[in-house]
Amino acid sequence: MRIATVSFNPAIDQTITVDHLTPGEVHRARAVRQNAGGKGVNVASCLADWGIAVTAFGLLGRDNAESFQALCAEKQIVDRFLRIPGATRVNLKIVDDRDTTDINMDGATVDAVAVERQSAQIEDFAGSDSLIVLSGSLPPGCPPDLYAGLIARLRKKGARVLLDTSGTPLMLALQGDTPPDIVKPNLRELADWAGEPVATADDAQRVAARLLARGVDLVVVSMGADGALFLSGTTALTARLRAESVTSTVGAGDSMVAGLVAALSDGLALPDIARLSTAFAVGKLGLAGPNLPGRDAVRALMGKVTIATAGRTEAGGAGETT
Ligand SMILES: Nc1ncnc2c1ncn2[C@@H]1O[C@H](COP(=O)(O)OP(=O)(O)OP(=O)(O)O)[C@@H](O)[C@H]1O
Ligand SMILES: O=P(O)(O)OC[C@@]1(O)O[C@H](CO)[C@@H](O)[C@@H]1O
């Protein structure tokens, strides 16, 4: 299967570590790092680490494209980003002793002609042997129904489409006649779509079932440290793995998406899709930036994932439960 990721609003992630974040106080940074990011870029980076050939589409500001170019060169990601005038946004991630706080910028306004030129190139790439991952927010200048329209164009060419976004672009993509094949909301995104609180796995299962009824094949709801819920057809299961170390939670959802893609391209059944994507997500938590540990480490994590289905708990791949 040919794989592509799409990032209309990539970001350079600037991660600042402080001892303890207190609003209104002066803080000393303990560490600062920058990496090329944005959801689609993170997915491509983790797929490349796993050894899957991936093509990255999207829009890149010409003024600060170097870190993206370096990432693509280092990981042999095929760079099909359209260069546009100006700079790609810089998002702030503040890590303290308890949590990560994200401050995401809107991004510079993009030109409708550039958006359509890139959309047409993505459409040219699409075919019945392809899986295309549409990730992240849309920058100002992009129509909010961009994903809805693109999904229809890509699916018409026979491509499978995975969508991971939020807010109005998610709403519009899910209310169109042609929904994506796969969606990965987190609890907040699912609640926003449903217009009702979604706090527990039971709530998530009830609400996510409505997405299946709308024609989505696979719904994965990520729930942070509580793991993730996987729904397809008549099967619903949860997968969870305790993280040994958490260096950065930024991009854990993107790593999970990369794991989903890897599992789907191997034709795995739902329990193994859940195991592999959870292992990708938890493996990434131990590393800074959108990176996976080696294949053996990910496989070892996969064997430790606890899968629970309809109230019943199965052992993980290596016979372990947590
Ligand atoms: N603290 C944690 N402990 C164990 N697993 C975690 C933890 N945080 C995240 N995960 C794993 O990573 C997956 C994705 O995390 P999360 O739900 O935070 O995604 P997200 O909100 O899409 O994140 P992002 O937008 O930063 O990519 C979870 O479903 C879970 O499997
Ligand atoms: O503003 P968006 O597009 O919703 O999210 C952007 C972002 O938070 O997503 C990634 C983590 O998932 C980061 O690399 C990036 O900064």
Report the CATH superfamily.
Answer: Ribokinase
Ligand identities: adenosine-5'-triphosphate, 1-O-phosphono-beta-D-fructofuranose
Given the helix and strand composition, which structural class is it?
A: alpha/beta
Quaternary state of the chains: single chain
Strand content: 15-25%
Compute the average pLDDT: 94
The biggest beta sheet reads: 12 strands, mixed
Shape: globular
Enumerate the spans where pLDDT stays under 50 for 5 or more consecutive residues: 310-322
**CATH architecture name:** 3-Layer(aba) Sandwich
Number of E strands? 16
The portion of residues assigned to helices is 25-40%
Radius of gyration: 19 Å
N-to-C order of helices and strands: EEEHEHEEEEHEHEHEHHEEEHHHEE
Query: What's the CATH topology label?
Result: UDP-N-acetylmuramoyl-L-alanine:D-glutamate ligase
Annotation field: number of helices: 10
CATH structural class: Alpha Beta
Function: Catalyzes the ATP-dependent phosphorylation of fructose-l-phosphate to fructose-l,6-bisphosphate.
InterPro entries: 1-PFruKinase, Carboh/pur_kinase_PfkB_CS, PfkB_dom, Ribokinase-like, Tagatose/fructose_Pkinase
GO molecular function, one term: kinase activity
Keywords: ATP-binding, Kinase, Nucleotide-binding, Transferase
Question: What does this protein structure show overall?
Answer:
The structure is a single chain. This protein starts with a strand and ends in an 8-residue tail after the last strand. The longest helix has 16 residues. The chain has a single domain, classed as Ribokinase (UDP-N-acetylmuramoyl-L-alanine:D-glutamate ligase, 3-Layer(aba) Sandwich). It has 10 helices and 16 strands. With 322 residues, the chain is an alpha/beta fold. Helix 1 runs parallel beside helix 2. Strands 1, 4, 5, 6, 9, 10, 11, 12, 13, 14, 15 and 16 form a 12-stranded mixed beta sheet that branches. Bound molecules: adenosine-5'-triphosphate and 1-O-phosphono-beta-D-fructofuranose. 1-O-phosphono-beta-D-fructofuranose (F1X) binds next to strand 2, helix 1 and helix 8. This is Phosphofructokinase. GO terms for molecular function: kinase activity.
